[in-house]
Backbone:
C-alpha cells in the first residue's frame, strides 16, 4: 500500500470548527490499515504511525495559522480540538482492535478534560490532563481500556497527567484538596457517558460549590502570591514568565476560577451579567488573554518545548514573529516587550477589580494586602471630609462625580492616601481609571495639583506605594507625560532587572526608605551624608527623572536634562533649583563610571571628577542618587565592592572640594582602616601586624572592605617564609551570586593574563576583578566569575579546580593559550545581544599612565584575550578595572611601555586600537578590515 497516495485525514475538515469530524476520518483510515495488517503488532504499529502523523500535521496547521497573524486563543482552541478528536480515535481503536471489551460496557467509561485542557485551550507544549470517570466500581475491562489509551498517548510522546476516580471519590478529594477542586471546576466532557459527567457536575454544584467560598478564594489568592514570589515578585521583570509570572496567564486563570466559583458562571461573557465586569472590562480581559495566548503559543513553537520564560535570547525572534517594527526610537523587541508589560499592568487592574467585588460580597478577607502597608503606618489623621470618605479603612470618594467637580481631586486622592497612611478603595481606583481624560493640560498646569504631587514625591510615608498606584492607574503617565513615555519600557540588556518606570519608582522608594529609616541595607553608605543635603526636593526630583528620557534616539542623559528644565518650573522650582536637577540628570552615571572604571589612587582621577562636581552640595546629592540608582537596578547589584569604591571616591573628592588638605585627611582615613583591621585580628602581635600593614599601599586600605582584608591577611600570612610565594583561595560571594577567586603570586606583566586564561579555559565567565600589588612585589588579584551550579559544595569544588589549573599555569605546567582556544571554539556565542565594540586610548586621565578603555560584548575568554594582546604589545598593566554591565564588558587598563613611559606615538596608539578591536571580530575573519577606530 502506498500511503503517500492517500489523501490527508484533514481533507474536507474545517479548522475553524476545531477539526470536528477528524475522529471519524481517522476511524475509517484505521479500519483500512487494520484490515491490511496481518498481525496485532502490525496493526498497532500502523495505527500508531497514523496517529503520530495526524498529530504532527494538525500541529503544523495550527502553527501555520498562528504565524499568518492568527489568533493565539484560536490556536490554543485548535490544538485542544485536535487533541479531543485524537483521543476519540484512540478510544475507538482500543475498543475495536485492542481490548476486546464490549462497547456497551466500555461506554460507561467517561473521559474528561481537566486543567488547562479543560478550558478547551492547549498551548503547543502543554500537558494533557485527563480524568477517567468511572462508575462507582471500576471494572478490569475499564482499567484495560484506560491503560491501552495511556500507552498510546505515551508512545506519541505526549505528557499526560491522569487520574481514575468515581464521582464520589472526586467529591471526597475536592473537599480536602483545593487543587483538585480547581481542576473539577473546569472539567469538560470529551467522550463516554454524558449522564455520568452530568452527575459529576451536579454533585460538584451541590456538595462543593455551596461551601463557604472564602476558603477557596483565600487559598487561590495565597497560591497566587506563592507562585508570583517564585517567578519574580514584580510584573515588570525584563525576562517575565508568560504563564506563572505576575500579570501572566495564570493570573487571568485565577480570576476566572474565583469568579466561576463565587458567581457560578461557566463562560467568561457571563461575568458582565453577574455584575463583576463592565462590558469594557470584559473586553479588556479578552484582549489580555488573547495577547498572552499568542505570545505563549509562539514561544512554545519557536523553542520546541513548554518554555514559559521570555528570556532575552527569544525576545528578538518573537518580536519579529509577532510583527513589531522600529518606531519612535524603540527597536522591535522593545516595542514588543513594552506591549507585554502594558498587558501585565492591565491584568493587575483586573485583579484589583475582582478583589474589590469579592470583598463587597464578603467572599474574601478584606484588605488582603494591608500587611504590606504596615511598615509605612503612622498615626492616622482626621477623616478626610469634603469629596473623600474613609470606607472600611480605605480612602474613597463620596460619589461618582467627585473628579468631574474638581479634577484636582484625582491627585488629591493619592495625596490623601499617603497623608492618612491608608490604602485606596478599589472603587475609587476604578473611578480614577475611568476619569483619566480629565488629566489635561489645565490640570497639569494647576498649581494646587503640582503642589500635591510634589508633596507625594517628598513624603517619607508611602512614597513608592503611592507613586506605583498612580502609575498603575495611568495617572502618573498622564500628569507627567514624559514619564508616560517610559511606562512599561524595557531596557534590552542583562544589566537592568526591571522596566524603566519600575526602576525609577524603586529608586525613589529606596531614597524615601533611607530617610525614614526603613532601609537597613546600605544605610551606612548614606546615613552621614543624607541629612546634610540642603535641598531635598532637588535630589528627589533628580532621582525621579534620571532615566526619564530612555528609549529616545539621543543620549538619555542629555535628553533627560531638557525634560527636567521643562518640568521643574511647573512644579515651582527656582531657576537655580531647576539647573541643579538638570545637572543631576545629565551626570547621573558619572560617579558610578569614575568609581568602577578609574584608578581612584590616581590624583588626576579625583581632580577630573571634582572639576565636574564643583560643589559639596552637588557631590552629596550625586553620591546619594548614585547609591539609590544602582540599588534599584536589581537585587544585590550594589555590592560591598561598589559601595567601597563609591565611598572612596566621595571621600577623596570631598577633600579636594573642601580646600585641599588631602594628604593629612587621606592618612587619617588609611589609619582608621588599619585600626579597623587591627581590631579584627586580636591574635596577631603588634610587631607582626605593623609589618603586615606596611606591605599595602594606601589605595588598598581605602578600597577593600574589612571582611576581604581579613581573608587577605590570613592568606598572606600563610606565605611567610615561602621561597616561591604562591597561594589561592576560593570563596562564594552570596550577595552577587558569584565565585570569588583570590590569587597571590609574584607580580609580572603576564600575571593577570594567565589568571584570566585559567578561568577562560575552565569555562568561568569573569564579571569583575580587583587588582592590587603589595610593597614587596606580590600581586593580590581577586577575580569574580559567574556560578555554574545551584549547590555551594559543587561550586566550591569547581572553584578549587580552576584555582589548581591557574597554579599549574603559573608554574609553566600547562599551556594556557591552547586550552583557551579549545574552550572558546566550543563555547556557544551570545546571539541575543549586539554591542558595538569601542577602544579609547587616553593620556589625559593620568599623569603617569596611558588609560586604555575597551568596551564590547562580553564572552568567555574576553579578558584573557585583551590582557594577552596588551602583553604582546609590550605594555605593562599597572592596574585594571574590570566591570560587566550585563552583556556589556567595560574594562580599563592603566598601562606604560617597557620603559615606564606613556604611549604618546599616534601610530602606536592606532595599532593598539586595531589589535584590541580585532578581538571582537569572529575568529574566522580576524586580521581583516578593522572596526571603526574610536577617537582619542
Residues:
Amino acid at each position: 500500500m502506498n500511503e503517500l497516495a492517500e489523501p490527508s485525514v484533514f481533507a474536507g475538515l474545517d479548522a475553524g470548527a476545531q477539526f470536528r469530524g477528524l475522529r471519524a476520518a481517522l476511524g475509517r483510515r484505521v479500519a483500512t490499515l487494520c484490515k491490511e495488517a496481518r498481525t496485532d503488532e502490525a496493526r498497532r504499529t500502523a495505527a500508531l504511525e497514523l496517529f503520530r502523523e495526524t498529530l504532527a500535521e494538525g500541529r503544523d496547521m495550527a502553527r501555520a495559522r498562528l504565524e499568518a497573524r492568527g489568533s493565539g486563543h484560536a490556536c490554543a482552541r485548535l490544538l485542544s480540538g485536535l487533541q479531543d478528536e485524537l483521543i476519540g480515535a484512540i478510544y475507538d481503536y482500543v475498543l475495536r482492535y485492542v481490548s476486546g471489551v464490549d462497547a456497551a460496557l466500555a461506554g460507561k467509561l467517561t473521559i474528561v478534560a481537566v486543567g488547562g485542557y479543560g478550558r478547551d485551550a492547549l498551548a503547543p507544549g502543554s500537558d494533557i490532563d485527563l480524568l477517567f470517570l468511572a462508575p462507582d466500581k471500576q471494572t478490569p475491562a475499564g482499567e484495560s481500556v484506560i491503560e491501552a489509551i495511556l500507552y498510546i498517548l505515551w508512545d506519541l510522546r505526549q505528557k499526560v497527567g491522569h487520574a481514575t476516580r468515581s464521582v464520589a471519590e472526586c467529591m471526597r478529594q475536592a473537599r480536602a484538596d483545593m487543587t483538585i477542586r480547581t481542576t473539577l471546576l473546569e472539567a469538560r466532557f470529551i467522550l463516554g457517558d454524558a449522564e455520568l459527567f452530568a452527575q459529576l457536575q451536579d454533585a460538584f454544584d451541590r456538595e462543593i460549590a455551596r461551601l463557604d467560598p472564602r476558603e477557596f478564594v483565600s487559598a487561590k489568592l495565597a497560591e497566587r502570591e506563592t507562585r508570583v514570589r517564585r517567578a519574580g515578585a514584580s510584573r515588570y521583570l525584563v525576562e517575565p514568565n508568560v504563564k506563572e509570572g505576575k500579570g501572566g496567564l495564570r493570573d487571568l486563570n485565577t480570576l476566572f476560577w474565583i469568579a466561576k466559583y463565587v458567581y457560578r458562571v461557566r463562560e467568561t461573557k457571563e461575568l458582565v451579567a453577574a455584575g463583576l465586569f463592565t462590558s469594557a472590562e470584559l473586553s479588556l480581559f479578552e484582549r489580555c488573554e488573547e495577547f498572552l495566548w499568542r505570545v505563549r503559543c509562539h514561544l512554545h513553537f519557536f523553542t520546541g518545548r513548554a518554555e514559559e520564560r521570555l528570556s532575552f535570547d527569544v525576545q528578538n525572534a518573537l518580536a519579529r514573529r509577532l510583527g513589531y517594527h522600529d518606531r519612535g526610537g524603540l527597536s522591535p523587541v522593545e516595542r514588543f516587550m513594552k506591549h507585554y508589560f502594558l498587558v501585565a499592568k492591565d491584568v493587575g487592574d483586573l485583579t484589583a477589580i475582582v478583589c474589590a467585588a469579592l470583598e463587597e460580597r464578603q467572599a474574601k478577607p478584606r484588605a488582603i494586602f494591608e500587611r504590606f502597608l504596615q511598615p509605612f503606618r503612622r498615626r492616622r489623621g482626621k477623616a478626610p471630609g469634603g469629596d473623600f470618605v474613609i470606607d472600611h479603612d480605605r480612602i474613597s470618594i463620596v460619589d461618582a462625580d467627585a473628579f468631574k467637580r474638581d479634577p484636582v481631586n484625582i491627585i488629591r486622592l493619592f495625596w490623601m492616601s499617603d497623608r492618612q497612611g491608608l490604602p485606596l478603595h478599589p472603587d475609587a481606583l476604578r473611578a480614577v481609571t475611568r476619569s483619566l481624560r480629565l488629566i489635561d493640560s489645565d490640570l497639569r498646569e494647576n498649581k494646587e495639583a503640582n503642589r500635591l504631587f510634589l508633596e507625594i514625591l517628598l513624603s517619607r510615608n508611602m512614597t513608592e506605594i503611592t507613586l506605583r498606584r498612580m502609575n498603575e492607574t495611568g495617572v502618573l503617565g498622564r500628569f507627567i507625560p514624559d514619564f508616560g513615555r517610559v511606562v512599561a519600557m524595557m531596557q534590552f540588556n542583562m544589566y537592568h532587572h526591571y522596566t524603566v518606570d519600575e526602576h525609577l519608582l524603586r529608586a525613589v522608594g529606596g531614597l524615601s526608605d533611607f530617610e525614614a529609616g526603613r532601609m537597613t541595607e546600605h544605610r551606612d553608605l548614606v546615613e552621614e551624608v543624607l541629612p546634610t543635603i540642603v535641598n531635598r526636593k532637588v535630589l528627589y526630583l533628580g532621582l525621579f527623572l534620571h532615566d526619564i528620557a530612555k528609549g529616545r534616539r539621543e543620549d538619555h542623559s542629555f535628553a533627560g536634562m531638557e525634560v527636567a528644565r521643562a518640568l521643574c518650573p511647573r512644579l515651582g522650582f527656582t531657576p537655580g533649583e531647576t539647573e541643579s536637577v538638570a545637572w543631576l540628570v545629565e551626570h547621573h552615571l558619572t560617579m558610578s563610571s569614575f568609581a568602577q572604571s578609574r584608578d581612584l589612587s590616581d590624583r588626576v582621577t579625583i581632580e577630573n571628577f571634582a572639576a565636574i562636581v564643583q560643589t559639596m552640595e552637588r557631590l552629596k546629592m550625586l553620591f546619594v542618587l548614585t547609591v539609590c540608582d544602582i540599588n534599584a537596578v536589581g537585587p544585590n547589584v550594589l555590592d560591598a565592592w561598589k559601595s567601597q569604591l563609591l565611598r572612596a571616591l566621595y571621600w577623596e573628592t570631598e577633600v579636594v572640594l573642601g580646600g585641599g588638605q588631602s594628604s593629612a585627611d587621606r592618612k587619617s582615613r588609611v589609619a582608621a582602616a588599619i585600626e579597623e583591621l587591627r581590631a579584627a585580628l586580636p591574635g596577631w602581635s603588634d610587631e607582626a601586624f605593623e609589618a603586615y600593614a606596611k606591605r599595602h599601599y594606601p589605595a588598598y586600605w581605602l578600597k577593600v572592605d574589612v571582611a576581604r582584608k581579613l581573608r587577605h591577611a590570613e592568606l598572606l600570612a600563610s606565605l611567610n617564609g615561602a621561597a616561591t610565594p604562591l597561594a589561592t583561595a576560593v570563596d562564594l560571594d552570596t550577595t552577587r551570586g558569584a565565585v570569588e577567586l583570590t590569587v597571590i603570586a609574584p607580580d609580572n606583566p603576564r600575571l593577570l593574563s594567565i589568571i584570566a586564561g585559567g578561568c577562560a579555559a575552565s569555562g568561568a565567565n569573569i564579571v569583575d576583578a580587583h587588582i592590587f600589588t603589595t610593597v614587596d612585589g606580590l600581586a593580590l588579584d581577586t577575580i569574580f566569575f559567574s556560578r555554574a551550579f545551584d549547590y555551594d559544595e559543587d561550586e566550591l569544588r569547581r572553584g578549587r579546580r580552576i584555582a589548581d589549573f591557574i597554579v599549574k599555569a603559573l608554574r609553566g605546567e600547562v599551556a594556557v593559550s591552547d586550552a583557551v582556544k579549545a574552550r572558546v571554539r566550543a563555547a556557544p556565542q551570545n546571539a541575543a545581544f549586539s554591542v558595538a565594540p569601542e577602544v579609547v586610548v587616553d593620556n589625559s586621565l593620568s599623569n603617569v599612565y596611558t588609560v586604555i578603555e575597551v568596551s564590547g560584548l562580553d564572552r568567555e575568554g574576553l579578558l584573557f584575550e585583551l590582557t594577552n594582546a596588551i602583553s604582546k604589545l609590550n605594555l605593562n598593566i599597572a592596574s585594571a578595572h574590570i566591570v560587566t554591565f550585563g552583556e556589556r564588558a567595560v574594562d580599563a587598563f592603566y598601562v606604560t611601555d617597557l620603559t615606564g613611559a606613556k604611549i604618546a606615538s599616534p601610530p602606536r596608539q592606532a595599532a593598539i586600537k586595531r589589535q584590541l578591536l580585532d578581538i571582537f571580530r569572529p575568529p574566522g575573519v580576524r586580521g581583516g578590515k578593522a572596526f571603526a577606530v574610536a577617537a582619542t
Q: What stands out?
A: The domain at 3-208 is CATH 3.30.460.10 (Beta Polymerase; domain 2). The mean pLDDT is 87.
